[in-house]
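FORM 12-B: Structure-to-Sequence Request
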C-alpha cells in the first residue's frame, strides 16, 4: 500500500455564535470576528489586548516556581563577588538567552563569563567539559539557559565541585528535577506560572525582570533586552500568544526603532531595509545566528549580539554571513543527495517513514535536511551521519534529527543494519524503522 503524499487539513470548529457576535463591530467585520473567536478571544476587551499589547500584561516573575530562590542566589553571588558562568545552547534560543543575561548582569559584576558548548565535541545541553571549564575558571554559580532540565548527573557533578546551578529551561521535565539551587520552568507540574510557552530566552528575561523588580530597577532598563526575546520567540517556534505576543510586540518595535549593533550589522549584510516582521526574524536573522554553531562555533553568535562597536559588529557579521552561505550550500547538496537516495529506492518510496544514513553528510545541517524531506513526503523522518565511527541519535549527541510531532525520551540501545557499524540509536528511532519495514510489506 502506498502511503499518502498530501497534507491533511484539519479545520477549526465553528466558533460560538455569541462570542462571534460580541466581537463584531464596525471596525471588526464578522469574518475577522470569527477568526478571533476561533483563537479563543471571547469579548472586545480581549480583542483590544490582542491588537494593542501593553507591558502591564506581563506576568509577575515571582509567580514562577523557584524564582525567589534564583534571584536571591544571584544577589548573593553579586554581593560576594563570586564568579558566574552564563551557559546556553548553541541555537538561536540559547545564544540570545546567553546574550540577554550576560548583557544585563555585566552591569553589576566584572566576574562574569559565558559558555556555549561545541555542537560536535559536546553536543546539546550541559556538558561535563563545560563544568570542568567552569571549575578551572573559579566559577561558583552557573546560570543554565534553554537547557539543563534533564541534566541530573551534570548538576550533581557540578555540586561535587562546589558549583551551584540555576536552571532556566522551557522543555518538559522528568518526574524528578535536577538538584539545582533553583529550577525555572513553567512546564513543571508544581509551577503556578500562568503562561507555559515562554522560550528559553523568555525565561532568562523573566529572571532578569525578577532581579530588577526586587532591586527597584525600572522596567525601562530591561527594554533594550526585548529584541533578543522577540528573535528567540520567533525562531524557536513557540506560540506567539499570551505573554509571548506582548514580548514579541515590544521586541519587534525595539528592533525596528533601535536595533543593537549585531542585529543592525546582520540586517545590512542581508540588505534588509524595510520594517521587520516576525517572518524576517525567522528567515533573515535566525539562520545567520544558527549558522555560527552549525559551521564554526555558537560563541561567535553571542559575541556578535553583545557587540557595541559598529565596526566590530560588521566584521563579526561578515564572518557569520559566510558561515550561512556555506550552510546553504551544504543544505542544498545534502538535500539533493537525500532526495535522490529515496528516488532510487523503491522501498524508501513506499515506506511510511524515512531513515537515511550517509557518512559524508555534514552534522550541522542534517536537521534542516530532515525537515525538508518532511515537507516533501509528509512522514516521520530520521537523517543520520557518521561521528567517530558511529551514528548517534539527536538526543544523545546531536548527530541525527527526527522530525515528528511527538516529543520522545531517548534511552540508548544498540543496533546494526545495512552494513552500518554498531551504533547507539534511540528506541523511538529503532521502532520508527521497524514500523517502516512492516508498513511497506505486502
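FORM 12-B RESPONSE
SEQUENCE OUT:
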Amino acid at each position: 500500500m502506498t502511503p499518502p503524499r498530501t497534507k491533511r487539513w484539519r479545520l477549526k470548529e465553528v466558533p460560538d455564535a455569541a462570542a462571534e457576535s460580541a466581537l463584531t463591530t464596525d471596525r471588526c467585520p464578522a469574518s475577522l470576528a470569527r477568526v478571533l473567536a476561533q483563537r479563543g478571544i471571547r469579548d472586545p476587551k480581549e480583542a483590544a489586548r490582542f491588537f494593542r499589547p501593553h507591558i502591564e500584561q506581563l506576568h509577575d516573575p515571582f509567580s514562577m516556581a523557584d524564582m525567589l530562590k534564583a534571584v536571591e542566589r544571584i544577589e548573593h553571588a553579586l554581593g560576594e563577588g563570586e564568579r558566574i558562568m552564563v551557559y546556553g545552547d548553541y541555537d538561536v534560543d540559547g545564544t540570545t538567552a546567553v546574550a540577554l543575561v550576560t548583557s544585563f548582569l555585566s552591569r553589576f559584576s566584572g566576574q562574569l563569563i559565558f559558555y556555549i558548548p561545541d555542537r560536535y565535541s559536546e553536543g546539546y545541553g550541559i556538558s561535563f567539559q563545560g563544568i570542568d571549564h567552569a571549575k578551572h575558571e573559579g566559577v561558583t554559580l552557573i546560570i543554565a539557559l534553554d537547557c539543563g532540565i534533564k541534566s541530573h548527573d551534570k548538576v550533581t557533578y557540578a555540586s561535587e565541585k562546589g558549583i551551584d546551578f540555576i536552571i532556566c529551561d522551557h522543555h518538559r521535565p522528568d518526574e524528578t528535577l535536577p538538584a539545582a539551587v533553583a529550577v525555572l520552568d513553567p512546564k513543571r507540574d508544581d509551577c503556578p506560572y500562568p503562561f507555559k510557552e515562554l522560550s528559553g530566552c523568555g525565561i532568562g528575561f523573566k529572571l532578569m525582570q525578577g532581579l530588577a523588580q526586587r532591586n527597584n530597577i525600572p522596567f525601562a532598563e530591561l527594554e533594550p533586552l526585548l529584541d533578543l526575546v522577540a528573535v528567540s520567540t520567533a525562531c524557536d517556534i513557540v506560540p506567539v500568544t499570551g505573554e509571548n505576543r506582548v514580548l514579541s510586540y515590544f521586541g519587534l518595535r525595539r528592533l525596528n526603532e533601535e536595533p543593537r549593533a549585531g542585529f543592525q550589522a546582520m540586517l545590512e549584510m542581508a540588505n534588509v531595509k524595510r520594517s521587520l516582521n516576525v517572518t524576517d526574524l525567522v528567515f533573515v536573522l535566525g539562520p545567520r545566528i544558527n549558522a555560527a554553531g552549525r559551521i564554526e562555533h555558537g560563541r561567535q553568535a553571542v559575541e556578535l549580539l553583545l557587540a557595541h562597536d559598529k565596526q566590530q559588529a560588521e566584521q563579526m557579521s561578515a564572518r557569520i554571513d559566510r558561515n550561512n552561505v556555506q550552510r546553504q550550500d551544504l543544505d542544498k547538496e545534502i538535500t539533493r543527495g537525500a532526495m535522490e537516495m529515496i528516488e532510487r529506492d523503491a522501498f524508501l518510496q513506499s515506506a511510511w517513514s524515512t531513515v537515511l544514513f550517509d557518512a559524508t553528510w555534514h552534522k550541522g545541517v542534517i536537521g534542516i535536511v530532515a525537515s525538508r524531506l518532511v515537507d516533501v513526503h509528509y512522514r516521520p523522518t530520521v537523517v543520520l551521519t557518521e561521528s567517530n565511527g558511529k551514528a548517534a541519535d539527536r538526543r544523545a549527541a546531536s548527530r541525527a534529527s527526527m522530525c515528528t510531532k511527538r516529543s520522545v525520551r531517548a534511552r540508548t540501545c544498540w543496533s546494526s543494519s545495512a552494513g552500518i557499524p554498531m551504533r547507539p540509536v534511540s528506541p523511538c528511532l529503532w521502532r520508527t524503522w521497524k514500523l517502516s519495514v512492516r508498513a511497506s510489506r505486502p
